[in-house]
Amino acid sequence: MARHGLDAEAKKGLTLIAPPLLYALAVLAAPLLTILTYSFLKDGYLEVIAEFTWGNYAQVLTDPIVRTIMLRSLIVAAMVTLVTVLLAFPIAYYVSFMVRPERKSMWLFLITIPFWTSYLIRVFLWKVILGYNGVINSTLTGLGIIDEPLTFILYNVNSIVLTLAHAYAPFAILPIFVALEKIDRSLLEAGRDLGESRAMTFWRVTLPLAMPGVIAATLIVFIPTIGDYVTPELIGGGKIPMIANLIQVQMLALDNRPLGSALAVTAMLTVALVSVVFLFLNRRFLRMRQ
Fold first, then answer.
1. Mean of pLDDT values over 101-130
2. 10 in a structural domain
3. What whole-number distance in Å separates Cα of residue 92 and Cα of residue 178?
4. Which residue range(s) make up the domain with 91?
C-alpha cells in the first residue's frame, strides 16, 4: 500500500511538472538545438546545405573582424557592468540602511518606474537627449556655454555605456538591495562595539555579506548587455557594431544562417566562460578575506 501511495504521489508530481517542463523545452531547448545544428551545416545560395562542417567555427575563430567585434562586446559589457554596479550599490545601500521601513516600498516602486516604458522607447529618449540638437546641446547652447553643438556625446562607446547602464540599473539595484536587507544589523553593531570604524565595518562585514547580491547584479547586467542589439544600432549609429549586430547581419542581411549560428554559439560559450572565471575569482577573493 505504501509503495502504491508513493507511485501515485510521483505520478501527481510528474503531472504538475510536465507542462512547465514541456514549455521550457519548447521555448529554450528547441531554439538552442536549432542554432547549434545550423552552426555545423554549410551555407548555399539562399539555402542551407545539410552537410556537416567545422568551417563556420574555423571562420569565426580566424576572422580578425569577428575577434575585434567580440573583444569590443566584452569590453563594453564589462564597462556597463562596472558602471551600473558601482552606481547601484550606493542607491541600494541608502534604501536598505537609511530609508525608514515604511517608505522602502515607495523607493522600490520609484526604482522600477523605468520598466513602465519599453526598452526601445528608453533608447530613443537617450538618442534625443544626446543628439546634435538634443536636450544637452540645446541647454548648453542656450546658456552660452558652447557656441556649436557637441558632436562627441553621441555615436560612440561612451554613449552606448551610458544608455545601457541606465537601462539595466534596476536589475542591479534590486538584487543588491535584497542582499543588504538580509544582513543581520546586530553584526554591524557588534563591529562598532569592538572599536571598528564605519568604513572598516562596511569593508569587513557589510560588503562580504552583500557579495551574493553584487554577484547576481554583475551577471544579470553583463550577460544581456554583451548581446544587446538595439543600443549599438541606435545610439552607436551602426558605426560601433557588437556581436549581436554581426549575428543579425549574417542571419538576415547576408542570409548566412550557419555562420550566424556559429557566431551565436561562440558568443554564448564566451559569455559562459567569462562568467565562470568571474565566479571563480570572486570565490577566491572571499576565501582570502576570511
1. 86
2. no
3. 9
4. 63-289
Rounded Cα distance between 68 and 245, Å, is 13
pLDDT at 175 over 90: yes
Domain count, the chain: 1
pTM, to two decimals: 0.83
Beta bridge partners of 44: 47
Q: Residue 90: which CATH number?
A: 1.10.3720.10
Is the CB of residue 176 less than 8 Å from the CB of residue 89?
yes
- pLDDT for 1 beyond 50: no
Find cell 522607447 and name the residue. 121
147 or 67: whose pLDDT is higher?
67
Average pLDDT over residues 151-157: 80
Which residue, chain included where needed, has cell 547584479? 217
Q: How far lies 265's CA from each of 20, 43, 190, in Å?
A: 25, 16, 50
> Which residues fall within 8 angstroms of residue 115, CB to CB, at 6 or more apart?
170
Question: What is the mean predicted confidence (pLDDT) over 76-86?
Answer: 94
The share of the chain scoring above pLDDT 70, in percent, equals: 91
Within a domain: residue 49?
no
Q: How many CB atoms lie within 10 A of CB 283?
A: 12
